[in-house]
Design a protein that fits this description.
This protein is an alpha/beta fold and about 240 residues long. The chain has eight helices and seven strands; from the N terminus they run H-E-H-E-E-H-E-H-E-H-E-H-H-H-E. It has a seven-stranded parallel β-sheet with strand order 3-2-1-4-5-6-7, with helices on both faces. The structure holds nicotinamide-adenine-dinucleotide.
Length: about 240
């Protein structure tokens, strides 16, 4: 049963990080289409401008700012039915180019940011709610020039399992999605993706909306209610587990 079905008189609310761009934004639009309210957390503007979407401009790696910001959220967006951690960065790195600063930036945003958001929002999440973390196919395979990013997403997938254990007494399911190539504005702009698409068994990149649909399916529990601690790879067959 979806949160919407459990609370017919109130719209369910999803906190979505990274909701101003890419897949986070597509996910926000998918949930709004289904009648959800969105508490968008992002560094920048760009989240859907709509009365059902409230943007909290905050750096998710700044624990104090995150706690203060969440405390100031207006009432209709305070109680949560879902938390979606989509904010993330993927600069290239290898053993020659990695620096301590780059390590800290990638791990702070991708790993620490995800953990801090759950830490500070979990008590507002309804029992039997859901959390979905954005991992990546790179968490499971070796990719040139992604030594830091791959390790950070492996950490996200593992933390997803631990969070699932910790929150299971409340009936909260915690899962991850691990996309392969996605036709996001950044991937289109940097031109890297086209070169790799012939090696994808389905011969195309995913549309951001397809990833949003998977996140929605994992969140509502309709057909996914017995899945927790799992990271679902969605890569057109590029990686088969
Ligand atoms: N694009 C891909 O092909 C791809 C593939 C696999 C996984 N992923 C993962 O999916 C997620 C979304 O990727 P995307 O390409 O749609 O992202 P994107 O770059 O289009 O958007 C990311 C958003 O996160 C926000 N953000 C970054 N750092 C932040 C911080 N410290 N605090 C708050 N907000 C912050 C940015 O402002 C931006 O709006 C990421 O976690 C990414 O690692 C992407």
């Amino acid at each position: 049963m979806s949160p919407a079905a459990r609370n017919p008189d109130s719209q369910p609310v999803a906190l979505i990080t990274g909701a101003s761009n890419g897949m986070g934004r597509s996910t926000a639009l998918r949930f709004m289409e289904a009648g959800w309210k969105i508490l968008a957390l992002d560094l920048v503007k760009g989240a859907p401008e709509d009365p059902n979407c409230h943007l909290l401009q905050v750096d998710i790696t700044d624990e104090q700012a995150l706690a203060t910001g969440l405390a100031s959220v207006p009432e209709p967006f305070r109680g949560l039915n879902a938390i979606i951690n989509a904010a993330g960065i993927y600069p290239v790195s290898n053993l020659d180019t990695l620096t301590v600063d780059l390590y800290r930036r990638i791990f702070d945003i991708n790993v620490l940011g995800t953990l801090l958001v759950v830490k500070h929002a979990k008590d507002r999440l309804a029992d039997h709610g859901a959390i979905v973390n954005f991992s990546s196919i790179d968490a499971f395979i070796a990719v040139d020039n992604q030594v830091l990013y791959s390790a950070s997403k492996a950490a996200v997938s593992n933390a997803t399992k631990t969070m699932a254990m910790e929150l299971s007494p409340r009936g909260i399911r915690v899962n991850g999605v691990a996309p392969g190539w996605v036709r996001t504005a950044q991937n289109i702009a940097n031109g890297r993706m086209e070169r790799f698409l012939p090696s994808v068994p389905l011969r195309r990149a995913a549309e951001p909306e397809e990833i949003a649909e998977l996140v929605y399916w994992l969140t509502t529990g309709e057909g996914s209610r017995y899945i927790t601690g799992e990271t679902i790879v969605t890569s057109g067959g590029l990686y088969m587990r």
